[in-house]
């Protein structure tokens, strides 16, 4: 079986369209979930720095901005883990089904 015929079978498979749609939708949603808070934080830091300049404790040096920034970074890591988990589960399963059907 030639490579072009396998590619044609894959592209015509409805599961391939489902895989592409699910993966794209999921990536866009996760991108918004990460980028909107990040850019909101950056905007607020640049336009209203006094919001994040409040000290966490009396006489302390740590401001409220540091833990919020750390949460943004940790949230990004966690959401990357969510994507990898789904990619290695549902998306890989669909991919294997598509490949099996294409090589029949």
Report on this model:
This protein is mostly helical. The protein has one domain (3-102). The chain has three helices and no strands. It has helices at 3-12, 14-47, 65-102. Helix 1 packs across helix 3 and helix 2 (14-47) runs antiparallel to helix 3. The longest helix is centred in the last third of the chain and has 38 residues, at 65-102. The radius of gyration is 22 Å and the shape is rod-shaped. The model has no long low-confidence stretch (mean pLDDT 93).
In terms of topology, how is this protein built?
Blueprint: H1 3-12, H2 14-47, H3 65-102
Helix pairs in contact: 1-3, 2-3
Oligomer: single chain
- Count up the domains: 1
Query: What's the number of extended β-strand segments?
Result: 0
N-end to C-end Cα span = 9 Å
Number of helices: 3
Structural class estimated from helices and strands: mainly alpha
Percentage of residues assigned to helices: over 70%
The helix/strand order is HHH
Give the DSSP E fraction (strand runs of 2 or more residues).
under 5%
Low-confidence region ranges: none
Shape: rod-shaped
Report the biggest beta sheet as strand number plus sense, adding barrel if it closes. none
Mean pLDDT: 93
Rg (CA only)? 22 Å
């Amino acid at each position: 079986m030639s490579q072009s015929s396998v590619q044609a079978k894959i592209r015509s498979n409805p599961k391939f369209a489902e895989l592409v749609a699910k993966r794209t939708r999921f990536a866009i949603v996760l991108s918004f979930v990460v980028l909107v808070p990040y850019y909101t934080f950056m905007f607020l830091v640049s336009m209203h720095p006094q919001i994040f300049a409040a000290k966490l404790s009396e006489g302390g040096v740590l401001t409220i901005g540091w833990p919020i920034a750390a949460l943004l970074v940790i949230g990004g890591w966690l959401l990357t883990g969510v994507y990898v988990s789904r990619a290695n589960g549902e998306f890989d399963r669909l991919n294997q089904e598509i490949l099996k059907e294409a090589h029949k």
